[in-house]
Structure formats: C-alpha cells, structure tokens
Amino acid sequence: MSSSTSSSRYKFPFMAYDIQEQLMDAMYSALDQKKVAIVESPTGTGKSLSIICATIQWIQDFHTNELKRLTRQLQTLNKEIERLDADSKVSSDWIELQDKKSMVCRQKEVIVKQLNAFDVKNQRNKALVDRRSNSLVRHSLVLKHKNVSKKLRTDTNCGDELSACDNETDEDFVDYCSDEEVMDEKVSAEESETFVRPKIYYASRTHSQLSQFIREIQRTTYSRGDTPLRAVPLGSRNNYCINDRVLRLNNNHLINEKCIELQNSSNSQTKCQFFKKSVMNELKDEVLADVLDIEDINKLGKGVKACPYYSTRLAIPEAEIVIMPYNVLLHSPTRQSYGIDLVDSVVVVDEAHNLMETIHNIHSIELKGSHVMDALTQLNAYLARYKTRLSARNAMHIKQIVFILNVFSKHFKTSAQNDCQSVCERVEFLIRLGIENLNLFQILDYCQKSQIARKLFGFSKRQQSVANDIKPDKAVNGTTAFLAKMKAKSIELQSIASNTSTPEEEVKVYGSPLYLIQEFLRALVNSNSNAKIITKYDKNSIRECCVKYILLNPFSQFKDIVSECRSVVLCGGTMKPFDEYIDHLFTPLGITSDRLLTFSCGHVIPDSHLLAVALGMGPNGKTLNYTFQNRTNNSMIEETGKTVVNMCAVIPDGIVCFFPSYELEDIYYKSWQKCGIIKSIESKGKTVFREPRKASMVHTILSDYNRAITGTNNRGALLLCVVGGKMSEGINFSDHLGRGVIVVGLPYANKQSLELTQKMQYLDSLKPNAGNVFYENLCLKAVNQSIGRAIRHKNDFAVIILLDNRYTNRQNIRQNLPDWIRARLLCVDSFPKAFSSIRQFFHNKQK
Predict the structure, then answer these.
(1) In the chain, N or C: fewer CB atoms in 10 Å?
(2) Where is it mostly found (predicted)?
(3) Is residue 150's pLDDT more than 70?
C-alpha cells in the first residue's frame, strides 16, 4: 500500500509505502516530543531515506516554528514595555514599574539576540547558495566527475612507508621539557552567532555506510533547496589527509602524530602546506554550501590546497547535520577533540543492533606479552643510544615506562608459572602490579606530548635496518652487538599483530607496541568501577600471555549522550528484543517509560516473496542438531552436505550459506571435499566460493561470485560465509545474488570464556537471569543480521533456511527472529516436505 501524502509532508522522493510513512511519523514524533526511541525497519524497506526525510523535515519545521515563537514573544514584550511606560506616567509607584520594565527589557534583549542569530543565519545561507551556484572550483573538481568512481587518495608504495626516515635524524630524539612546548592538536572553531542548534548527529558503523547515507540525502529535494542543507561528514585523518608525507606512514597512530607535528612546525619547509586557516575556511564554506561525500571533499581539498580533515571540523558549528562513524560519537575524548556539543541536539544511531557490543569494544583493550617484551627491547635500545643526550626529566619518564613494562612482564611470568587465569578490579590490579603509587596521569601526559611512541617507532625501524646489514661473521660489540642480537631473536619491530593470526587472517598493525601500552594505561586510570581486568596465561610462551581491560556496563559510556541530547534514536533492521536496550542502556540512566518510544514495522514485500523454513531433519532422516558435542561428527557433516546439495538442485542463482565460525566452516569444507559433497554441489551447476579471512580479498571473492551467477552459461554459485564475519553485515545479496540463505546451526558464543562469564555475572547482579537472556540474544542477533542479507527491495524474493532442530522445537528462539520472517516461518521435521515447499516456491516464481 502507498500513501498519497508522503511526498507532500516529508518530500519523500518517491511515492512512499504505508510503513515508510509510519516510520517517518514515528521519527518525527520522537524528535518533536524529546523522546528516546528504538526504531526497527527491515533492510530493504527504505529505512535510511525515511530517516533522512523525517529528521530534515523536523529540523526545518523546528526552526520555522522557533522563529515564529520568538517573533510573537518580541511583539508581546514590546506591548508590555509600552504598557509599563504608559502606566509610569500616571502611577505614583513609578519605581516598581521601572523595575518591571528593566526585567522585561532584559528578556527582550535575549529574544532580540536570538532573532539576530536567525538573521545572520539567513544571510549566511544566501552566501552559501550563491557559492553553490557559482563556485568554479567545485564545478570543475566535483560536479564534473560526479559519476566517476575514484579512490580517495593515490596509491602509495608500501616499500616507501618510511622513506622520510631512512637516515637517523634528531626526529627520534625526545627533547620534551614542559607541557607548553607542544601545541594541542585541537583546532577551535569559533562559536559565533552562526552556531546552529539543535543539530542532527547521525552515526553509523562504517565509512561505507556513511557514504551511502550521504548518497541517499543527495537523492532528496532537501539537498537542492533554496536553503542549503548544511551536512558535514566527519572522518579520520586516514580518510581525509591529502599530504603524501603523512599518508605514506600507512598507520593511524603515526599519521595522527605526524599531522600534529607538521601543523605545529615552525619551519616553513616542513610545516604542512595544507594547514592554512584562510584556505581551510574557503573549503569549509564549500562543504557547507552543498551535500558532499568524503571523496568530493578530498577532491576540493586537493584543488584549493586546504586540509579536508580540519576544514570539516571547522564546519561543525554551522552544520545542521553532522555525519560521523561510531567511534567519534561513542568515545568521549574523541568527541571533545572534534568540538562536538550534544546539548539540546538529536542523535540518530543507525545499524544500532550492535551498539552495546561496539561500546564494549571501543572501551576494552587487550595487551599481550609480545607487546610488552618488544616495547622493552625498543626502549632499552633507545636509552642505550641516547643516554648521554637525554635530560634528567626525559630519562626519568622513560625509565618509569621501562619499570612498568618490567612489572607487566613479571606478572605474565607469574601467571604462567602458577598455571592460572585471574579476574580482578582495576584498583586491585594496580596493587598486584605494585604501581598504585605511580602517577600514571603524568606518565601518559608525557607520552602524548613528547610523542615518544612515534619517535620510538622511527628509531626502531632504522636500527632494524642497521641490524639487517650486519654480517654474521663480523666481530661486533656494544650497541651493534645488541642490535645483532635483536635480529637473531627475530623480533618484529615494525608491526605488532593485535592477536594471534594464521596466514589467512587479517593482521592488525600498530606502528609501535608503545601505542597499545599507552591505551591500556589510559584505561587503567579510568575511574569506571564496572570494569574488570582479565589475565590469560600461556605456559608455552610469555609472548602469548595477555591482560585485557573489559567494560561491563555500556550505559556508563552512553550516559553523557542521553543526558545532554533532547532526543536519541536507535535505528536498525533487527533491533528486537527492545528490552535489551531498555534494560541495559536506558533504565540505568533514569529514562522512564513515558519518555520511551518503540516502533517496529513489517517488510514491503508481499507474503509470496519469502519462504522461511526451519528444518530439523536431513534427507537421510538424521536429526540436524548442531550443539558443540554434535556439530563436528562425520555423520552430521555429511548429512548437512547432502542437505545443501539438495537445496542447490532447486534454488536458482546464488545461495549464501552461513556457519557459526571460521573454524567450523573450514572443517565442513575440507570434509565435503574428501567425501565428494563439493563435486555434487558443482554438478548442480553451483560454483563454490568461501568467505576470505583477509578483508582485502572480500571484493575479489564477491566479484567472482557475481560473475559465476550472471555470466554466460552459468547456473549459479554457493558462497560459504560466517555469521558475524565480513559478509554477514553491510553486504547486499539482492535478487539473483541471494535467492537462498542457509544458516547452519546457532552461533552461540563460548560460555566458558572469562570475558563472557564476567559479563553474564554482572548482568545477573542487576536483574535475575539477565545474563542468560543476553547470551541468547547475542546469538539470535547475529543470525538475524545474516539472514537480513537477502530481500533488499520490494520486488526481491528468496528462501531462508534455518538448519537445526532447535529452531523447530524452541519457541524462545523463534520468538527472537524478526517479525516479518517469523510470520512467514514454516517449521518442519520432514525433509521431503521442506524440499517440496522450496521447489514449489521457485516454480511459482517462474510462472
């Protein structure tokens, strides 16, 4: 059903469906009534476009109504002043009347100031509209290439990563003396009368999702109106930097520190050529004049030679909509560094199904024995090299860091020797280590302002190069001998992996292990009482021991956002159960039911476009039950394989099959290869692809998968994926790419995990059985995200198959599936019945 009023009120670019109209109404009401809202709209129902139209229409209406209100108030106050003047002429109590008049005049001054701000804003809008129409730079650099897809920056040669640091220089030498010597990185945007309030702060998980949101704004008439829509996309330096000297470092930590160093340099030859306030203000105006994405802004920045990163930050005070990744919104220090003021504003968090996990991950950090040992090696070599040049204060701070690292090393050795894992509070951990009396704040301040981690990285890289040049048969001593010893131990000084990885896994790279150590110490000085420190040992290698700081209560980090904003809206395609967000995020913050608003809608597709099947039995009559004890049985693996082969015979085009983990997918694939299942699948015309562990390979695999389906003489493909993996979120398997989605089992987390155990115990302390509810929800939310990869628009159709008899037998599991899937769910324990239903579904689609 479509609504005839959609395009008129909300300027929806198409004739909106009823559920889209309902979603826009719910969003508008939440913002207008200062509500905290949880909104669920299935993927493929136009959720983003509905959010955009509702929020922009509300903010425009708000400013219009606010202007009318202030104008009426001014008229009322002027009449009151006239009355008081008239009364004072005839009344004997003129002193009291003058006091009243003074009070009314002060009220009038406030109103006049607010009205003047509207006038300034209108004049500013006229200038921005004129710039949008007449900017030659923007027309030549952006509009001309609007339909051309390019990289955000030119490729750099990894071999040149540190070409600026090939020879030893005093860049590595710490010469920090006082807090005042290093400029703060923050560029303070002027809080002028042009400051726009309230703002809409929109946050999502990835930059690709943010770019998609901007493209959706560009589809609406709001982006092309007589009044410019001031939308500013924020990003990291890694996204926005256009200085090749900085980008070649290819590491976020190093890029950040190098950027700060270059902008503060007093040497005109080394100072960043793009950090010029006048041209940055020009670029800021270009950003405000039109709705641009990161790629557009980078092109403009290169054209006018202005820094896009700081230009977008300068634009924040005047912006109406600020578009940002999760980490900027959810991390208070980052938010403050950007100058983001949430007071009386609106926050919209999209893809919020993983919000609590994201908050947990942002504020948790793991420190491994390898990080500690490598940092110790680097610092000792650094002290040996510069001991005669370091000031007493610098030497003292570095020795304090070395002392802390030695304490951590001893802690790992003790844990490994005692064969124990431990969990303790933050203060208890500091006491165990014996560093409770150290001023960690002062040490962290020194690390930040001296940039010791970046300098240590450069020093270690060069020293490693020296060690590599040492001939084995040459007699060496002193520092050279020490460096040769470093090489012999094969210590990797350039990059430190954040976790143990196989050759197929992605390796997370840090410029120096000292960055991680700083982050861990920063977490330790956090006064949050609802956090734990977990120590895990490895008897075979101290380098594999680790300590992890974990946050147990997400609401503590969400408190400022909820308390400062006029309204907070959490949106997603799979948000149920709502109680999880209410109990863990809002109720602890004092949000009562009268301020809460929840909304959920169905899908735009007709019932005939989806068949959902919960199947508990395979083609040979074996029960499909993927508990930990059963899932690796050879008979279960073979029965699953035969089930998939049968599905490949009746489901056309592309099928996506999700496993609970990479390990289980690997076991099944290798077993299927040995027993001939893979050949049977290929005999049905399906080419088999596997989700890669390297993120860099995802695009290649998806392209090959697409070609196998759409290419000449190809009948389709089967893609083996992982729940919670790289293809379970943000990937569009629409139409022929996802005619079938199969989920093998239930991806329950390891209940023996110390981290999960602590989380569940904490939740149980707040509410009985809350830990188990959280455990179940964690699993089903991951399933819901995976099955949401199919059915991406109103004309799409697909079959969803849930393999496990727990789907058929347990009502609590089915209850947590999305409403639009549960309403169409067929629970069967008979394979022939399921097979027949699926075959008939696609037969009907061919008519």
Answers:
(1) C
(2) nucleus
(3) no
